[in-house]
Amino acid sequence: MRDYSLYEKAYLPDPGFPVRVFCNLEDDSDSGIHNHWHEQIELLYFVKGNAIVECNSLPIDVKPGDLIVVNSNDLHRVQDGWDTITYYCIIIDTSLFQSRSTDACEVKYIDPITKNLIVFKNKICNDSEVISCIENIINENEKKDIGFELSIKSYMYRLLVLLLRNYINKILTPKEYGIKVRNLGKLNCVLKYIEENYTEKITINQLADMICVSNYYFCHLFKQVTGKTLSEYVNSIRVNAAEVLLKSSDMNITEVALTVGFNDINYFSRVFKKHKKYPPSKVRKTAM
Predict the structure, then answer these.
(1) What does the mean pLDDT of the chain come to?
(2) What's the pTM?
(3) Theoretical Cys-Cys bridge with 172: which of 14, 101, 177, 259, CB 3.0 to 4.6 Å?
(4) CB 87 within 8 A of CB 53
């Protein structure tokens, strides 16, 4: 049976030091189409170009100097803008913060994080203390001088304090977290199916049958997990794919609309402008 899971097993090269820091450079070829999630916290620090990051289907505009915090189990993806974008990824397994002995500090602050009960705000901008921590982590990772692991860990703890003081979005109960994970698990195959078949006709009945639930329950579950109706979600994927084609192919706008699954060019233009805040014709003119 084909695996439609959007789960991504984060690569951490050193299990004894569960942090990975690397630089991503993306052009406008394929970014923005594929959602994924993982248990680890991921920090995205943008240094060049404008982009949109979707976290749980909510679009977040980012510019150089902005930091995105991707919480554990957040569905997310990065879309480029008009320019090539460069950003650093810092993937952190929360076991980094656990010690061999349990003390009051760990019970009070670390346990809720390792149990994924604390949800941080996704976007951080204009915070020099936070960005200083991020840049120091990047520099230490690049130089790899003696003790760089200790230095990175110290900056991680400082960053954690800043996030706890200023950027908590929500504190979940264990029951709420369990429901979140179960719901995400239920929709894994559905979301992956949509990603791979968005050019075809997709119906609520078809997807509800896929996970053996009623149409009513499916609509409720889908909106709860993604924040969008099925139509809104599919259209957002089609629009992202259309923008890539408008930038990189010589197809006209009608051909692009048909290729990504829209049968009505006027409807395509309205939906595109609603999502992107500019018409598809602007993309084509800029790309020429």
Answers:
(1) 87
(2) 0.75
(3) 177
(4) no
